[in-house]
Design a protein that fits this description.
about 325 residues, binds coenzyme A, elongated, alpha+beta, Aminopeptidase, 13-stranded mixed sheet, about 35% strand, 2 domains, 13 strands, single chain, 9 helices
């Protein structure tokens, strides 16, 4: 990186005093000191924001030259492993192309590994693939993105209460050959363990772990939607994980995760679309400015035609097999 006789550079976690060191200028944000400290102390416990600080010996001056975030999502898939989302990678204009971004990303990859994550993922345009490939990311998947422009004005959102997710009324779904069935989308519940939710998720966690997950992980910013038919059989699930960003003026960002359908009972064109639409409704009602969903299987891409605004981003990943349970 940039370290030389006159300058020392170190990577560390964001501190409250970084407001004074110009953190908001670094990310071109207009948040106030009150919003910054509120975010820092309370709201975003899942976000680990890192900065690169440079110290110039001759002038005795410190400044922040780069930042990136590890947003940690607790999963029920893969045992109870965690997933690290690498977000908000930003190097100031004067420090680019000197290895700073690569060093920071390498550091965060090791942080994610040591936090027990089974995988780290990042989303970018394909023009940035070279940068992420240079740091070890690969296995690209197509990302579907929905933008909610009305929700960009998020700066005063701290005091807005978010209503609890109540679920949908019954949907009448045409399956094929004129056959109709009903389905409902609702919040996950402890009885879903017996109904086979872990099988749907490809997970083998015990009931105790499942209940702990419901109690401690699920909530306002982590909503697991479950779709069931008229007889109470599970048809599918999708998780809405909400991250508040320092970039975009503390707006909220929705990661749509773990879309699983029981393909013996449900199909992507009808049930999958309803589930995704409901996840987008949840993201919108929780004032997210954007929702992203990566498709592990590109063959399902056409099923979701017209539901998203763009699909030119890619998600790449690095696996940590030593953390698989
Ligand atoms: C993208 C960014 C983080 C790169 O940081 P950086 O410190 O300039 O990158 P590095 O100097 O560590 O470069 C590492 C490698 O990536 C390549 N690289 C850097 N920027 C690149 C870019 N914009 N496009 C393609 N490749 C790039 C370098 O050539 C280098 O390749 P090499 O290892 O084969 O020599 C920085 O340009 C930035 O902050 N951009 C604006 C914000 C942004 O786009 N963030 C990414 C959000 S997904």
């Amino acid at each position: 990186m940039l370290t030389s006789r006159d300058e020392t550079v170190r990577i560390r976690k964001l501190c409250p005093m970084d407001f004074k060191l110009g953190f908001t200028e670094l990310i071109s944000s207009t948040v106030t000191v009150r919003q910054f400290t509120r975010f820092f102390y309370g709201i975003c416990t899942q976000s680990n924001v890192y900065v690169v600080e440079s110290y110039e010996r001759t002038t005795n001056k410190k400044k922040l030259i780069a930042t990136a975030t590890l947003f940690i999502e607790e999963k029920t898939t893969h045992g109870l492993c965690r997933l690290a989302h690498l977000e908000n990678v930003f190097v100031c204009a004067q420090s680019r192309r000197k290895g700073c971004g690569k060093t920071l990303v390498h550091f965060l990859i090791e942080e994610a590994r040591s936090m027990g994550c089974y995988k780290i993922i990042c989303t970018s345009t394909s023009s940035l693939s070279h940068f992420y490939n240079a740091t070890g990311f690969n296995e690209p998947h197509c990302v579907q993105t929905k933008i909610f422009p009305e929700n960009f004005q998020a700066i005063n959102m701290f005091d807005a209460a978010t209503p609890k997710y109540e679920g949908t009324k019954k949907h009448l779904v045409k399956i094929h050959d004129g056959i109709e069935s009903t389905c409902v989308i609702r919040n996950i519940h402890s009885r879903d363990y017996d109904a086979g939710i872990t099988r749907l998720l490809g997970s083998r966690i015990s009931r105790d772990f499942f209940e702990a997950y419901l109690e401690h992980v699920c909530g306002e910013n982590h909503i697991v939607l479950v779709m069931e038919d008229g007889e109470g059989r599970l048809l599918g699930t999708c998780t809405v994980v909400i991250e508040r960003k320092f970039t975009h003026g503390l707006c909220k960002f929705c990661h749509m995760e773990d879309l699983f359908l029981d393909t013996d009972q449900a199909c992507h064109d009808t049930h999958g679309r309803l589930l995704i639409q409901e996840a987008l409704n949840v993201a919108y009602s929780r004032q997210c400015y954007r929702a992203d969903m990566a498709l592990a299987d590109d063959r399902t891409l056409t099923c979701y035609d017209g539901m998203f605004d763009r699909n030119d981003l890619i998600q790449q990943s690095i696996l940590f097999p030593e953390n698989f349970v």
